[in-house]
Write a structure and sequence with these properties.
Blueprint: H1 3-10, E1 15-23, E2 26-33, E3 48-59, E4 67-79, E5 85-87, H2 101-111, H3 116-123, H4 127-133
Parallel strand pairs: 2-4
Antiparallel strand pairs: 1-2, 3-4, 4-5
Helix pairs in contact: 2-3, 3-4
The protein binds zinc ion.
The site of zinc ion has 8 residues, from loops.
Length: 134
């Protein structure tokens, strides 16, 4: 899988693909936020200095019945313009959610066709998470 395929298949804008690993029936993509999306989340200035960051594991759209995860490094930056120290915004995430916007849209579509329990199993989410999305 490439950066382009993840962009088009998973709607992962601003992701730089690194590698893929397969374990326990899950596919895990590893990536980082691309340099063009590394900017201040407050004033949107690109005049920033990287200062560490965090790893997060997110749920992606499944491929058939196979679950897909994204192991993402989210950099923390110091803004030279406004002085803010924050993590950069992740364009394909809503706040601190553990699933992508594309998966949330998929859940909304599926929930009109089948019971929430089936949607949860198919997407690898808990029933409560599916209910929160609706
Ligand atoms: Zn700033």
């Amino acid at each position: 899988m490439s950066t382009s395929q993840l962009y088009h298949n998973q709607d992962l804008r601003g992701l730089k693909y690194l590698r893929t690993s397969y374990a326990e029936g899950k596919t895990t993509y590893h990536g980082v936020i691309s340099d063009s999306y590394t900017k201040c989340s407050k004033c949107h200035s690109h005049n920033v200095v990287r200062s560490g960051g965090v790893f997060r594991t997110l749920r992606l759209l499944p491929t058939g019945t196979r679950l897909n995860l994204l192991h993402l490094f989210i950099p923390r930056v110091v803004c030279k313009k406004c002085g803010t120290i924050r993590q950069v915004n992740v364009p394909f995430l809503e706040g601190q959610k553990s699933y992508t916007r594309a998966l949330a849209r998929y859940v909304l579509c599926l929930s009109q066709l089948m019971p929430l329990t089936y949607v949860a199993v198919l997407c690898g989410l808990s029933w409560n998470t599916v209910k929160q999305i609706l």
